[in-house]
Specification:
With about 300 residues, this protein is of the alpha/beta class. It contains 13 helices and 9 strands. The chain is globular, with a radius of gyration of 20 Å.
Length: about 300
């Protein structure tokens, strides 16, 4: 087995040209294991022939047994990871040109997670900035207050972080095998369980913005599908349960905005979800009921102005 220092796990579905761009941003080094896990793309059986980059040294290509979950692909990647440190990457994103320098400078034994800042660009023109810099405020807060709390609990994406693989395996942390929000509980539990962390206010990761991605509807204001609403709401409810169980003073209350989206577009499913919540967790249901009432009142007031 190779003595890798870093394992980079990339789930992929049906964007091979962007995947090649992604791979080009990763240096070919004997210390870096690259694991691409395809989530049952229609033409995946042709990729090795069409894309020589998939045969480069230190790269492994796998396929999930069934499609529909980047979380399943990430978990499969973890099964094959052998590096001391694990990085997760989306197939349409890139690493900064100074990736290796940043890793060598800031990643060291004794840390469980290293949080790096990121920047965002438009996918079809990498010279144009985009508006997906939605975690940068966490680094600004850390610089101003020195508190790790919000970085640990509000940085829901997996990209931009470097995880100790021993830490991940010791606690058995894995992604949910859902289509949407499959990384949220992983990030939340890792942030909660991590001992020593390091925060680096330099961009290691470049997030791209494009239409058609799984994240696009969540941040574009467009109506989400029922599947997206339910997946995102389910995981946000679990986050709310965790914050209460561990008495974590987090600021965000994501389940409220997702509850509003489900009620607005899929009323029947919303009522079923609330009934199930009433039976399974009355305390969380009470929070929903109170905050939903406040939301409705606020909407009515705005409409009457």
């Amino acid at each position: 087995m190779q003595g890798y220092k870093y394992s980079i796990i990339i789930p992929h579905y049906n964007i091979p040209d962007l995947l090649m761009r992604c791979l080009e941003s990763i240096p070919v080094r004997e210390t870096i294991q690259v694991i691409v896990v395809d989530d049952c793309s229609p033409e995946a059986h042709t990729y090795k022939e069409k894309y020589p980059e998939l045969s480069r040294p230190f790269l492994e290509f796998y396929q999930t047994p069934r499609g529909g979950s980047a979380g399943r692909a990430r978990n499969l990647g973890l099964e094959h990871a052998s590096g001391e440190w694990v990085l997760f990457m989306d197939a349409d994103d890139l690493f900064a040109d100074n990736l290796c320098e940043l890793l060598d400078e800031h990643v060291e034994e004794g840390l469980d997670i290293v949080f790096f800042n990121n920047r965002s660009v438009m996918s079809d023109d990498l010279t144009q900035p985009a508006n997906r810099d939605f975690y940068q405020y966490l680094f600004k807060e850390y610089e101003e207050t020195g508190s790790e709390l919000n970085l640990r609990y509000d940085f829901y994406s997996l990209w931009g972080k470097v995880f100790s693989r021993a830490f991940i395996e010791r606690h058995g942390i894995r992604c949910d095998e859902t289509m949407y929000s499959n990384d949220v509980l992983f990030s939340f539990m890792a942030g909660h369980l991590a001992g020593k962390i390091r925060v680096v206010d330099e961009p290691l990761y470049i997030v791209t913005q494009r239409s058609g991605s799984l994240a696009s509807s969540q941040f574009s204001g467009k109506a989400m599908s029922l599947k997206e609403c339910e997946d995102r709401l389910d995981v946000s409810i679990r986050v709310a349960q965790m914050t209460r169980r561990y008495d974590i003073p987090v600021k965000k209350d994501l389940h409220m905005e997702l509850s509003w989206a489900l009620r607005r577009y899929y009323t029947g499913s919303y009522l079923l979800k609330m009934f199930h919540l009433l039976l399974s967790n009355p305390r969380i249901f009470g929070s929903f009921l109170w905050r939903d009432c406040q939301t409705v009142v606020a909407v009515v007031r705005r409409a009457l102005r």
